[in-house]
Specification:
The chain is built from two helices and nine strands; from the N terminus they run H-E-E-E-E-H-E-E-E-E-E. It is mainly beta. The longest helix has 10 residues.
């Protein structure tokens, strides 16, 4: 029952509605309907008393996608379930590590760590197949070696050429 309807009916009975809280969204009931009340329905209540109610939230709350870089699907799967998210389609992509989470999608949108999704959302995963062989030429890191500042080889003072060393 909607709060407005409950207020009308209780006012006719000379009772007052007092909204206690909004509980976490339950998809089995319409948004903003009364899920709990005290005293219970059918109880005898004196005139002028309050009936305390709790409403269903309007929608699921948002969850932040956790960091998944360099984590296996098994690790992320446990985290995802604890956050009340669902596992969707799993696809594999050539990669050196088997079952490493490479990407996460929701409804075709690529997600990154820190993005927000609604509770109860279904997430699709792209995992490494473990069949890729390491190849130094095709290996790419986050920062290629040619973009790093050059390192200068420095010898300790006691080993410099020309002064005889030890």
């Amino acid at each position: 029952m909607k709060l407005e309807v409950a207020e009308e009916k209780l006012n006719e009975l000379d009772l007052e509605v007092f909204l206690l809280d909004t509980v976490e969204f339950n998809a089995d009931f319409p948004p903003f309907t009364i899920l709990e009340q005290d005293p219970k329905a059918g109880s005898l209540v004196k005139d002028g008393r309050k009936v305390y109610v709790k409403l269903n939230a309007g929608e699921f709350t948002e969850i932040t996608i956790p960091e998944f870089k360099d984590k296996t699907f098994r690790q992320i799967s446990a985290t995802i379930k604890s956050l009340t998210l669902k596992e969707g389609k799993i696809t594999y992509k050539p990669h050196i590590a088997k079952d490493i989470v490479l990407q996460i999608f929701q409804d075709g949108r690529r997600l990154r760590a820190g993005d927000k999704v609604k509770k109860n959302s279904t997430l699709d995963f792209v995992l490494g197949d473990g069949k890729e062989v390491f190849n130094e030429e095709t290996f790419s890191s986050e920062e290629p070696a040619d973009t790093l500042p050059p390192t200068e080889e420095v010898q300790p003072a006691e080993f410099k050429e020309g002064d005889g060393g030890l």
